[in-house]
Amino acid sequence: MFLDRIEGDLGVIVAADGRSVDVPLAWLPEGIRGGAELTVTVAEDPHATTEGRAQAASLIDELIRRSET
């Protein structure tokens, strides 16, 4: 993959098969320029997923309690 170009606050990443995806520049290394080769890794964060679900459940419980009064 490589960074094809920067358009405003987005970077256009192109894969070897020609498909492209726009990503926020904030996700890319500071100072990156078009033509840079990239290594991209995507992984699930089980701890953050568990925490997020717990927070969502807590918020739902709070909303239910509020609606019952």
Question: If you had to describe this structure to a student in words, what would you say it looks like?
Answer:
With 69 residues, the chain is an alpha+beta fold. It is built from 1 helix and 3 strands. The chain has one helix at residues 46-67; strands at 2-7, 10-14, 20-24. Strands 1-2-3 form a 3-stranded antiparallel β-sheet, with no helix packed on it. The longest helix is centred in the last third of the chain and has 22 residues, at 46-67. It is elongated and about 60 Å long.
Order of H and E elements: EEEH
What best-fitting shape do the alpha-carbon axes yield? elongated
Strand order of the largest sheet: 1-2-3
Overall radius of gyration: 19 Å
State the helix count: 1
The helix content is 25-40%
Distance between the termini: 55 Å
Q: Report the β-strand fraction as a percent range.
A: 15-25%
Identify low-pLDDT runs. Answer: none
* Structural class computed from helices and strand pairing: alpha+beta
In total, the number of strands is 3
Q: How would a textbook summarize the main sheet?
A: 3 strands, antiparallel
Mean pLDDT: 95
